[in-house]
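User: Hello! I'm new to structural biology and keep hearing that structure can be predicted from sequence alone. Could you demonstrate with Deoxyuridine 5'-triphosphate nucleotidohydrolase? Please show me the input and the output so I can see what each looks like.

Assistant: Of course. The first part below is the input, the amino acid sequence of Deoxyuridine 5'-triphosphate nucleotidohydrolase. The second part is the output, the predicted structure written as tokens.
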Amino acid sequence: MSPQTSPETITPEKITVPIRQLDPELPVPGYAHPGDAGADLLAAEDFALEPGERRLVPTGIAIALPEGWVGLVHPRSGLAVRHGITLVNTPGTIDAGYRGEVKVCLLNTDRAGTVHFSRGDRIAQLVLQRIGQADFVPVADLEDSARGEGGFGSTGLGSQQ
């Protein structure tokens, strides 16, 4: 790319997501920076995670995603790096038809440290994506591809398998 050329700016698609605040004192999910993919999900209660413990944490919200969209709940990188906190089911999937409370299944992977959370702490991020659905059609054979049947580790793990 020459100095006179700049990358094309792509504006994220905006959709309206109705939200029911089950805990009206907590703010609705929001984006920390313009262009961020994930909106912050907050803990609706105080809790602690002992080493190796997992917990289903309420966020105090329920949403109604439009048909054709999915909400994917991802871990927060800062919690992972600083405390070893991740999500058991990652990404968690929120289907368009789900209307219950959004909950996050956190896991403390640290072997020694307990991690304390306060109500209102950012615990995960919600990424919205368009989806497609397939018609699965049984066939006798699949068309060949360059990769073929190469699976886990076939693109570079070599002797580390």
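User: So the tokens describe the shape?

Assistant: Right, they're a compact way of writing down the 3D structure. Reading them back into a model, for example: DSSP finds one helix and ten strands in the chain.
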